[in-house]
Amino acid sequence: MNPILIQESVHSIWVPALPEAGEKSIDESVFLPFPHSLQWGTAMAINREDWPNRRKKASPIVRSGYARTEYFIDPVNGIAAVFGVQILPWGNKEVAQTLFSKLEELPYAALAD
Questions:
Q1: Residue 2 CB: number of other CB atoms within 10 A?
Q2: Which Gene3D superfamilies match (predicted)?
Q3: pTM score > 0.90 for this model?
Q4: Where are the alpha helices (DSSP H) in the chain?
């Protein structure tokens, strides 16, 4: 079998890749509907701290597309989700702060039960 990605490549996704100045530059230029508690890896954003009722520190990674197609992966808790809408302009607060937040809260609430 010929894998598409080797194990080291997959693990590198969870490794922060930007220096502090680069991280600050992205935080200032990108609308983020949540606290700036992200570090940026080679493929996605990585949480630096727990978010109440949502993602946990270091394990989840998240990516958002231009028209709000988003996903997150939390291998520690065995959770992955895809949220797909096509809505512009990017940064629609109703979608970002309500719908996607609820999508993240539901699996973590089920784990807590």
A1: 3
A2: DD-peptidase/beta-lactamase superfamily
A3: no
A4: 7-12, 20-29, 93, 100-112
Which tokens is 32 given?
Answer: 């983020």
Sequence letter at residue 83? F
CA distance 55 to 63: 13
Distance of CA 108 to the CA centre of its chain: 15
Q: Quick one: 99 exposed, middle or buried, by C-beta within 10 A (0-12, 13-18, 19+)?
A: middle
pLDDT in tens, 55-99: 777 766 777 777 677 788 888 888 888 888 777 776 666 776 678
Per residue in 27-65, pLDDT (tens digit) is 776 655 555 577 888 888 888 888 888 877 776 677 777
